[in-house]
């Protein structure tokens, strides 16, 4: 395969995917509405075709213009979009759909492709656009991939867990990096052993390419870090990465003041959190029940994940150069200080 069409391609996963494909000598065309800055505007071997992926005529025109060997669908959020794309690109060497670990309906450890039941999806859920039905819609997209493969389409699905890394516009991990960078004591709900499997974005990008080149049509492939860490271990990785990061001048106005990576993690139970009108789910990336994906099936194709220290170092470096702080998820430092005060009296 030599040519690729990336539906999306300028924000997060798609951005890293384009770089991955160029590193492996693909000629790449990005297909999107042009609503975001194109980081590849001056990059040789990367073209841009403007259009709305929900417009099937625009997708058909892009197919005629590009004639891609491989199609990577980063922004299919409704099952009808997957069904339409698998029809339009039915003669491609590969159509790879980004699904989600949230497609799984059963709480199993670990969640395995072909074994763990997927979420159901009603007709109403299939056309919804709320966060509550995200996993249902992704699961139905996976079923559309299987149906397309049964018709002879080279269609594949990749299911990432929580994705982190440079240019993450969700800012979920940015919240925790900002906390560790700016405070000596960081409040963590529970006992610190919470596990919510994460996937480094560059590894997700390489997984998409590997599945297109080596996968079996109709199959789904989980992707996540090959070593799963607890929330405490994640914070220690962040602290180590901050300690190794290039020195930067203090700038409290930007939220990146002097940092002390002598991290003290303070665990708070529901009673202590309630004293400040907080609950464990007020803290992003906290999950009561472990969420772990089996990644052996993907590894059998020759894929591997980046060492965690290297992945976090790159993530932290880019965070420090950005203006992201994850404040959308901030439960409030004053509330956390009240929690700390309660714990200090025990």
What characteristics describe this protein?
346 residues, alpha/beta, Rossmann fold, seven-stranded parallel β-sheet, two-stranded parallel ribbon, 12 helices, 11 strands, 15% strand, globular, Epimerase_deHydtase
Describe the structure.
The protein is of the alpha/beta class and 346 residues long. It folds into two domains: 3-162 and 199-223, Rossmann fold; 172-196 and 229-288 and 307-344. Helix content is 36%, strand content 15%. The chain has helices at 13-23, 56-66, 79-88, 123-126, 134-150, 172-182, 201-214, 231-244, 270-274, 296-299, 308-320, 333-344; strands spanning 3-7, 27-32, 46-50, 70-73, 94-98, 155-160, 162-164, 185-189, 198-200, 220-223, 264-268. The strands form three sheets. Strands 3-2-1-4-5-6-10 form a seven-stranded parallel β-sheet, sandwiched between helices. A two-stranded parallel ribbon has the order 7-9. It has a two-stranded parallel sheet with strand order 8-11. Strand 4, helix 3 and strand 5 form a beta-alpha-beta unit. Helix 1 (13-23) packs across helix 7 (201-214), helix 3 (79-88) packs parallel to helix 5 and helix 8 packs across helix 11 (308-320). It starts with a strand and ends with a helix. The mean pLDDT is 95.
């Amino acid at each position: 395969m030599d040519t690729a069409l990336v539906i999306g391609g300028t924000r997060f996963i798609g951005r890293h995917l384009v770089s991955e494909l160029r590193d492996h000598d693909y000629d790449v065309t990005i297909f999107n509405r042009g609503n975001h800055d194109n980081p590849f505007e001056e990059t040789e071997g990367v073209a841009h075709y403007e259009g709305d992926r929900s417009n099937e005529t625009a997708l058909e025109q892009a197919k005629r213009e590009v004639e891609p060997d491989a199609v990577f669908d980063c922004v299919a959020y409704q099952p009808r979009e997957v069904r339409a794309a698998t029809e339009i690109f039915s003669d491609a060497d590969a159509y790879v759909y980004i699904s989600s670990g949230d497609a799984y309906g059963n709480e199993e450890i670990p969640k395995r492709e072909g074994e763990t039941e997927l979420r159901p999806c009603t007709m109403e859920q299939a056309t919804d656009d709320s966060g509550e039905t995200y996993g249902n819609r992704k699961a139905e997209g996976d079923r559309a991939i299987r149906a397309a493969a049964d018709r002879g389409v080279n269609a594949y699905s990749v299911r990432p867990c929580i994705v982190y890394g440079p240019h993450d516009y969700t800012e979920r991990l940015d919240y925790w990096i900002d906390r560790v960078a700016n405070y000596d004591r960081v409040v963590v709900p529970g006992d610190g052993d919470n596990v919510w499997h994460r996937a480094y974005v560059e590894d997700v990008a390489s997984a998409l390419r590997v599945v297109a080149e080596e996968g079996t049509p109709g199959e789904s492939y989980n992707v996540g870090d090959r070593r799963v860490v607890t929330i405490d271990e994640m914070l220690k990785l962040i602290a180590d990465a901050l300690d190794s990061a290039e020195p930067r001048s203090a700038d409290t106005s930007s939220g990146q003041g002097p940092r002390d990576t002598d991290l003290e993690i303070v665990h708070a139970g529901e009673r202590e959190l309630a004293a400040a009108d907080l609950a464990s789910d007020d803290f992003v990336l906290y999950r009561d029940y472990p969420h772990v994906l089996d990644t052996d099936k993907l590894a059998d194709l020759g894929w591997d994940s980046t060492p965690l220290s290297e992945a976090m170092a790159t993530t932290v470096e880019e965070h420090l150069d950005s203006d992201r702080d994850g404040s959308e998820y901030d439960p409030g430092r004053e509330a956390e200080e009240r929690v700390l005060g309660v714990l200090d009296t025990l």
